[in-house]
Amino acid sequence: IDPHFFMGDCHYRAGDYDKALVSLETALKAPARPNRALADEGRRKEVDALLVKVREKLK
Fold first, then answer.
1. Which residues have CB under 8 Å from 54's CB, separation 6+?
2. What is the rounded average pLDDT for all residues in the chain?
3. Local confidence band at 38 (pLDDT 50, 70, 90 cut-offs)
């Protein structure tokens, strides 16, 4: 989940919203990591928040 989130964030900051959307949607599809449930939950919230921003830019 982490690499896709950070790539999505990078694309977002660069103004490449289409690529950001793909990376962030891929992040949400990432399987849960063993012993990282709390971290994954927090990261998914960050992904969701950034997805809102990306989708707003794509309107």
1. 8, 12, 17, 20, 21, 24
2. 98
3. very high
Residue 31: give the domain boundaries. Answer: 2-57
Surface-to-core class of residue 7, CB atoms within 10 Å of its CB (0-12 exposed, 13-18 middle, 19+ buried): middle
Cβ burial of 3 (10 Å; 0-12, 13-18, 19+) is exposed
With beta carbons less than 8 A apart as the criterion, state whether 13 and 53 touch: no
Question: For residues 22 and 46, what is the distance between their CA atoms, to the nearest angstrom?
Answer: 15
User: Is 54 within 8 Å of 21 (Cβ atoms)?
Assistant: yes
Q: How many domains does the chain have?
A: 1
